[in-house]
Amino acid sequence: MEQLNEDLPPALPSAVERFLTGIAVAGLFAMAVLVTTNVISRWIGRAIIPDDIQLVQELMVLVILLPIGMVTALRQHISVDLFTEKAGTGAKYLLALLGHVAGLGFSGFLLAAAWDGLKQAWRTQEYYNGVLDIPVWIGHSAFLFGIALFFVRLVMMVVIDCRALTR
């Protein structure tokens, strides 16, 4: 993978993050197969995959959230560096640290909301109406898992950037 910012080296992604990225890739492939099969079967005259929209929605959570720790470790988030391009390495680490701390605050709120959503979905045993009756708590637990791992990665990045600033 090409390093876009030579001043801030990427952190080493863990084996768990690499594994979860692989699961996300498999989920993306499964989504493509689901959608393609359903489009072709509808074109022929009868949709053969029940609840395809709910299945794709649940897979989307995995595809987006599972690799986010790897993206964070590699410092590959979308960024605009128009004003920071000429900044020194220390200033870039400071700005990266500020971004990670802000991300911790934001993901902390998401973590709390995901926990509340999972508790509610579990307590009510709510499910999506359809042929498969997919329980809502499955998607909520996947969301909570992904956000929790992202939160842990952000904590690790704060430590890495603080160490780099104190050198």
Automatic annotation (TrEMBL):
Sequence ranges assigned to domain Tripartite ATP-independent periplasmic transporters DctQ component in this UniProt record: 31-159
Topology with respect to the bilayer: Multi-pass membrane protein
Cross-referenced InterPro entries: DctQ, TRAP_DctQ
Keywords noted in UniProt: Cell inner membrane, Cell membrane, Membrane, Transmembrane, Transmembrane helix, Transport
Any GO MF annotation of the entry: transmembrane transporter activity
GO biological process per UniProt: C4-dicarboxylate transport
A GO CC term attached to the entry: plasma membrane
Origin: domain of life: Bacteria
Family in the record: Belongs to the TRAP transporter small permease family.
Subunit structure: The complex comprises the extracytoplasmic solute receptor protein and the two transmembrane proteins.
Role: Part of the tripartite ATP-independent periplasmic (TRAP) transport system.
Protein name from the UniProt record: TRAP transporter small permease protein
Origin species: Marivibrio halodurans
Lineage, opening ranks: Bacteria, Pseudomonadati, Pseudomonadota, Alphaproteobacteria, Rhodospirillales
